[in-house]
Amino acid sequence: MQYYYSSKKPNALGIVKVHAENCKDLPDVLGRIYLGIFPNGNLALASVREKFQLTNAKICSCCVDQNVFSEN
Ligand SMILES: [Zn+2]
User: Fold this and answer.
1) Residue 67 resides in a domain
2) What is the per-residue pLDDT for 4?
3) Residue 21 Cα, ligand 1 centroid: separation in angstroms?
4) Ligand 1 centroid from CA 18, angstroms
5) How many domains does the chain have?
6) I want to staple 41 with a disulfide (CB 3.0 to 4.6 A). Which of 20, 59, 60, 72 is the partner?
7) Strand pairing partners for 16?
8) DSSP characters over 3-72
9) pLDDT score recorded for residue 72
């Protein structure tokens, strides 16, 4: 399980990125929104889409499914 965050503002393409806590592209404290603890990026993404009614949310490319095959 891992902490996930979304960026507070969409990027230039209008996409809100979802990041795991250890992501190298994680926005700083003021630029991110805490989403919760999830077993993988897909569940974090599903949550942010539902919670904030975002259809343009995407998981960060380096954070996608990174924990799916872990022991968690
Ligand atoms: Zn990432």
Assistant:
1) no
2) 96
3) 8
4) 8
5) 1
6) 59
7) 57
8) EEEEESS--TTS-EEEEETT-TTPPPGGGEEEEEEESSHHHHHHHHHHHTT-SSEEE-TTTTTTTTTS--
9) 43
Question: Three-state SS for 1?
Answer: coil
Tell whether 42 is covered by a domain: yes
Provide the residue-wise pLDDT of the chain in tens; the chain has 72 residues. Answer: 999 999 999 989 999 999 999 999 999 999 999 999 999 999 999 999 999 888 899 999 998 875 555 444
Is residue 66, in this structure, part of any structural domain at all?
no
Question: Does 37 map to a domain?
Answer: yes
Protein residues near ligand 1, an ion, with CB under 5 A:
19, 23, 60, 62-63
Distance (Å) from CA 59 to ligand 1 centroid: 8
Query: Which structural domain range is residue 26 located in?
Result: 2-59
The confidence score (pLDDT) of residue 67 equals 53
